[in-house]
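Internal ticket - ligand job 228, adenine:
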Amino acid sequence: MIGIIGALEEEVNLIKNELTDKKDLFISGSIYTVGKLFNKEVVITKCGVGKVFSAIAAEVMALKFNVECIINTGVAGALSENLSVNDLAIASSVVQHDMDTSPLGDPKGLISGINVINFDADENLIKKLEKVAKELNVNYEKGVIATGDQFISDKAKKEEIKNSFNAIACEMEGGAIGHVAFVNRIPFIVIRTISDNANGDAKVDFPKFLTLATRTLYRLTKRFLELY
Ligand code: ADE
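stdout (structure tokens):
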């Protein structure tokens, strides 16, 4: 079974509507819809915004549904100058930009105990997604995606995250999903279309471009699942 996690209704609905033989299960506060797409078993959930909700969803996918991989779909703020609204950011790895034990001598973003900063996304899944982006003519960049429990809408904060982690985009779930996938040894991928530039305009751009960006996200995710 393939697991799909998105934070918002808009980030999961279009692809969820494509499933056949659907069945809903209510677990730990969220609905998990199990169904079929292109003859593959899929489970999809709208987990809610942020690292805790997305970690719960990833753990449920691991333990209750025994998924073979986790796909995190959603929108992101662009940090890289190569990315504009409606482009695709593919995570080569994810980091948690708000994890910080640097006063104790650790590098920023280090997850103590497992001593990891970057959680690597699955190479084969990335290759598949790159192929899909080329086929659908969607401009994309592959690189580090930075996650934190903050909506970034400030130029100074944007530059800080970009420079600290060499990150191309920011969002609020991928780093938590990568963390849970890592400890459960499950391959994962993060598919994020750009809704804003994580600057002073982001609070206007995000609602303005959400529909456009999630439509492209849907097209990419659907074709990705077809080729999976
Ligand atoms: N998701 C989409 N845009 C974002 C931003 N600017 N900050 C955090 N998460 C986002």
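Auto-summary: Strands lie at 2-6, 20-27, 30-37, 40-46, 69-78, 88-96, 119-120, 140-147, 167-171, 188-196. The longest helix spans residues 202-227.
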